[in-house]
Amino acid sequence: MAKAFFRLQKFLRRIQFLLFFLTAAYLMAGSLLLLQRTRLVLQQGSRGAPSNQALPAPEDTSRAGVPRSLQSPRLPVGTDALQEPAPGQQHSPRWLVSRNSELRQLRRRWFHRLSSDQEPLQTAGFKAVKHTAEHKGTYMGCFNHDSRERTLKGAVFYDLRKMTVGHCQEACAERAYSYAGLAFGAECYCGNTLPAAAAAAEECSSECKGERGSVCGGLNRLSVYSAQQPRAGARPLRRNVIYRGCFRAPENLTDTFPASLIQRNLTVEMCSEFCSKKEFPLAVIRGRECYCGFPTRRFSLREGTDGRRCGGSHNASSAAGGGYCLVYQTPVQDTRCTDRKFLTTKSKVFVALSSFPGAGNTWARHLIEHATGYYTGSYYFDGALYNKGFKGEKDHWRSRRTICVKTHESGKTEIEMFDSAILLIRNPYKSLMAEFNRKYAGHLGYATDRNWKSKEWPDFVNSYASWWASHVLEWLKYGKRLLVVHYEDLKQSLIPKLKEMVEFLNVTVTEDRLLCVENNRDGNFKRSGAKQKNFEPFTQEMKDLINRYILTVDEALKGRNFSGLPREYVPR
């Protein structure tokens, strides 16, 4: 009896082990299938629908009589739930909203994947080149670092993975600063005056994120180095000085500008270097007189005059005296509006900054942050933008510690989570090109000829053109309180439009702060690299498609008592 029981016990143990093994094998096989299916869907999303299976678009009414057998087939496996619209419904806003809802999850996963893929390509406003670990210049010591009253209050950069001492020194030297300070292992500050309060050397104990063995400050501590000198023969000051124009001089130049210099045979480089050392963003030249300062209400740089009144040349030696002066932008940053922080108390109103990708959302965030002094949040996390100073990227989007939250979402549920929204709209032709550039070259680069001529581009247009339209339509339908801002109007009339946005956010700002924003309007968001001249990527078929979407959105805006789309959108 005991022997039989022992055999039964042994058999059950084997069965238990076998069941455990089969369960593990089943789970592993299921995981592999799930990963393969997810990968397939992502690849389909990143390619866009094939041309013969493209996202249906508004078509001419003549297509209504075409038999279904001759029309485009349905989308492939993974998107087969997308229903083919009836021919008569393909012009309607209802179809656009419905189609956008069905594709939202696929696009969202694609957007997240692209953001994470591109993150390593971006740096904190520095050039995308390899820097040597060695640094030049003298170590000045460890100093106290007060983020509210910074001594090194020039340009500020972040790089959470690649910050090095040499990296920071180069960036500060290129902008004509004398000192480079590093904090928290990843933050770089520039200035021309050493901090007053020194700290013990051991308090600067944070290792640089991109350079082992080098010290990059600490908690509220700043490691300060003299800025690295540029290569022999280089003249960065002259290269970085920007001619702003000829302007009527204010009545009292001494009262308007805090610093001045009188120099025989004065040159632009002399004046720019003098003002850079004083940490002023403007160098103003009248004859042999050099003045330094900021744009103010007295001297706002809004009304330039004919350059011939200043001698018809950008050279200081030929600048006429009397009532006119030459104005140059120095490499130094206007710091009156660069201080930013999180809201001290949770916002009672949850505000979205909504736009289609490529519509200038990041630029709008730059303007809002510098105008209000508060960080903006994001529905996503983009490490590249965090490195550029958007600290709200790392904050949870529902924390309500930011003045508004960036989003490209357009579903009913996502929209109704917000109490109000700034809806930023840009010309779809420009938006599509900007997003295509971002997809292949990051936030600041350009896609190559090969990208534009590939099959990716027409597939991209077929899919994304309808998303541009449905994004606006859904926010008009479900948004509770909207301020519609057209990118082109914001670019052309920055101060008036920015005032509207700031008032909508219920923040009061000074005129000088707005002028500072205008002076720093571009930030670090100009695309670099060779831009193609006379380049027309849109075929006539694409134009017909996009123009019909434009008319649909224009009609919807007017139906909600908003101004229609700018005239420049159509015809094309």
What does this protein structure show overall?
This protein is an alpha+beta fold. Among the domains are: 139-226; 242-329, no CATH class; 351-525 and 537-569, Rossmann fold, CATH 3.40.50. 37% of the residues lie in helices and 14% in strands. It is built from 16 helices and 18 strands. Strands 9-11-10-13-8-12 form a six-stranded antiparallel β-sheet. A five-stranded antiparallel β-sheet has the order 1-7-3-4-2. It has a five-stranded parallel β-sheet with strand order 15-16-14-17-18, sandwiched between helices. Strand 10 and strand 11 (289-293) form a beta hairpin. Helix 1 crosses helix 2. The longest helix has 46 residues, at 2-47. The protein is globular. The termini are far apart. The relative contact order is 0.10. Mean pLDDT is 77; it is low at 37-88, 109-133 and 233-238. Residues 136-228, 240-337 form the WSC domain. Keywords: Repeat.
Summarize the entry for a quick read.
This is WSCD1 protein. With 572 residues, this protein is of the alpha+beta class.
Name of the level-1 CATH class of the domain at 351-525 and 537-569: Alpha Beta
Any idea what the CATH superfamily of the domain at 351-525 and 537-569 is called? P-loop containing nucleotide triphosphate hydrolases
Low-confidence stretches: 37-88, 109-133, 233-238
DSSP strand content: 5-15%
Structural class: alpha+beta
Distance, first to last CA: 94 Å
Kindly report the CATH topology of the domain at 351-525 and 537-569.
Rossmann fold
Number of strands: 18
